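Deadline looming. Please check this record:
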Amino acid sequence: MANSSEFDPQLFVSHKFPESTYTYTERDAVIYALGVGACGKDAVDADELKYVYHENGQQFIQVLPTFSALFSIRMSSTGGLHLPGLEYDPRLLLHGQQYIEIYKPLPCSASVRTEACIAGLHDKGKAAIIEIETKCFHSESGELLFMNRMTAFLRGAGGFSKSSQPFSYSNYPTNQASAAKIPKGQPFAVFEDCTQPSQALLYRLSGDYNPLHSDPEIAKVAGFSRPILHGLCTLGFAVRAIIKCICRGDPNMVKSISGRFLLHVYPGETLITEMWIEGLRVIYQVKVKERNRTVLSGYVDLHRLASSL
């Protein structure tokens, strides 16, 4: 439990993280695309070759919108977050949700600047929920490119409220955090994709070096039979399926992305993404075929629908 006599939640939510700058290249965008399965089934996939190769003489590769998730506030190599004043065991941190808004198509290479703040803090008694919002700007033009909001569940870090009413703070509309209600009817589209046994080892090259995804001993301590796939990698697979099936291969149709992580995925398992269209929103859920378990659900809002639908 958090030390309620020392931890001030009001002071904590006003904390501003230091600004950070990152420079990424086309190579980074390609490694990311391969890490979330692009061209994994077909090396010359007509919808996906553009993410990894200058197809038909195109000047730049295209960048998957989930590449923006790499610029959320970075976790440490142990999987923890630096949260001033809030004591918790990083081994008990769970990545619960990810929300992304895309304002401009992502350039294939750029220098970017990030600003991060506390977007939410909720005392759940035995646990705390923290939400961190990161805005990413193009360093040269100053344009806002995208925003990430990461939700983490910190087991053992609750109990810090100063009154009988549990502390709860959010700086954004509640409808952005609502869980997607999966329709009862048949999905509009279903896409099946196989992760590779080495998928987590490839995805970690994009910057998430948490040993839970690579070290078998640490995975066993955490309760898994072997290293698990990164949740954001599963999200990348899901959004790539939506772009392929609903957006007809156009990544710039994606306006915003919401994903709730429900269960782990083991590298090598088969992912089945089911999709329903409601207006300009695609509601989706991802299941692991081998275990018949839902591992991820959420929605993707689009700027428009493909004319061929």
